[in-house]
Amino acid sequence: MAPARRRVAAVSFWRRVLEPRRDEHAQALYAALVKQARRPEFYLGCGVPDTIDGRFEMIALHAFLLLRRLKRDRQQTADLAQAVFDLMFTDMDENLREMGTGDQGVGKHVKAMATALYGRIKAYENGLAGGGLDQAIRRNLFGTATPKATEVARLARYLRREAAALDAAGLDQLLAGQVAFGPAPAGTAEETA
User: Fold this and answer.
1) Choosing a second label site near 172 at 20 to 30 A (CA), which of 2, 29, 51, 114?
2) What is the 8-class DSSP label of residue 47?
3) Using CB atoms within 10 A of its CB, is residue 65 exposed (0-12), middle (13-18) or buried (19+)?
4) Higher-confidence residue: 53 or 16?
5) Strand boundaries in 63-179, DSSP class E
6) So what's the pLDDT on residue 8?
7) What share of the chain has pLDDT > 70, as a percent?
8) Is the confidence at residue 68, as pLDDT, over 90?
9) What does the DSSP 8-state code read for residue 35?
């Protein structure tokens, strides 16, 4: 076999071996971020609207956190990050169909959601880097609802804490599909009084 053909065969072999594992790991990461986004404390203790939009926003926030961390080691994580992103929008597509959105409308909705995610990523990244995080949280997580200042502050602390924890997370752990989010923020008696 010619050297070029051997290289193609080797790449093809490793692709068949590694891609299913990467997809399993992406599924585990996506499942973890969705599980965290569904924690009732975000809706009951932080005032995020318990609506389709509010749930999308919480998934987008946790996707931002995970994708931000994966981006740091882009050379090793690009395929995994793309697989997580693809899973997220496959899931969104399936959910829209289950809710009765017709085939014609699903594509438009998914495209709008992707655009929204890119906007959230930029807003949260800028907020973590230099300020405006409270405004990004108000605008995105709450939409037309009017949150209490304590709720916004609680979510800003949570976002900063989780970004720092993921920054400290080992790359091997993430590549193996393991991510651990901290506890969802809960209101205290002093904050709600």
Assistant:
1) 114
2) -
3) buried
4) 53
5) none
6) 45
7) 77
8) yes
9) H
Instruction: Give dist(CA 150, CA 163) in Å, integer.
Output: 20
Overall size of the chain counted in residues: 193
Convert the pLDDT of each residue in 142-174 to its tens digit: 988 899 999 999 999 999 999 999 999 999 999
- Of the listed ranges 5-19, 75-89, 101-115, the least confidently predicted one is 5-19
Instruction: Please count the other Cβ atoms lying within 10 Å of the Cβ belonging to residue 16.
Output: 9
CA separation for the pair 126, 174 (Å, rounded): 24
Give the pair of three-digit tokens for residue 66.
Answer: 């995970």
φ and ψ of 142, to 5 deg: -110, -15
> How is 56-95 classified by DSSP, letter by letter?
HHHHHHHHHHHHHHHHHTHHHHHHHHHHHHHHHHHHHHHH
pLDDT class of 21 with cuts at 50, 70, 90:
low
Q: What is the CA radius of gyration of the chain?
A: 19
The answer to whether 173 touches 179, Cβ cutoff 8 Å, is: yes
Distance, CA of 101 to chain centre: 23
**Exposure string for 21-59, b = 16+ CB within 10 A, e = fewer:** ebbebbeebbebbbebbebeebbebbbbbeeebbbbbbb
